[in-house]
Structure prediction request, 154 residues.
Amino acid sequence: MTTRHIQRSGLWGFCILLAFALMVSVVPAAEGGMQGDSGIVTGKSEAGVTYMHGGVGKSERAKMDKLAKNYNLKAVCAGTNSDYLAFLDVRVTNAKGDTVLHIPRTEGPWVFAKLPAGTYTVKATYEGETKTAKATVGMGLKTLQLRWKLSGAD
Prediction:
């Protein structure tokens, strides 16, 4: 009887652990985004802007390139030596200065957004240093390059 009880409780514990692991795998990321198994985070901001970020590794960037047709703004964050950066704070504001997208911690160097036609300011902060770029978007994909001089880089 004791053996049977241990086996059942062991199975029960395994089921609870499995359920917890499944819940953790779909925990929302910044601004309500969801991170899939590829490391690419997708979501919609409070202002209704659809976005994705990630791009660590060639396979992730290849997946994002395939999805790029759904977006009209792409921000690429890298060092002046071309090393890609991650874990940036990215904020997109409209011409009125209203924040339409805020990602407090990117999962990679690429940030895509689907914005209404207009002019936007993108501010990205890496290790306390903020870079700013402006973009006018409409149809097609507008790409911005945000670059940081990294310590120890040539």
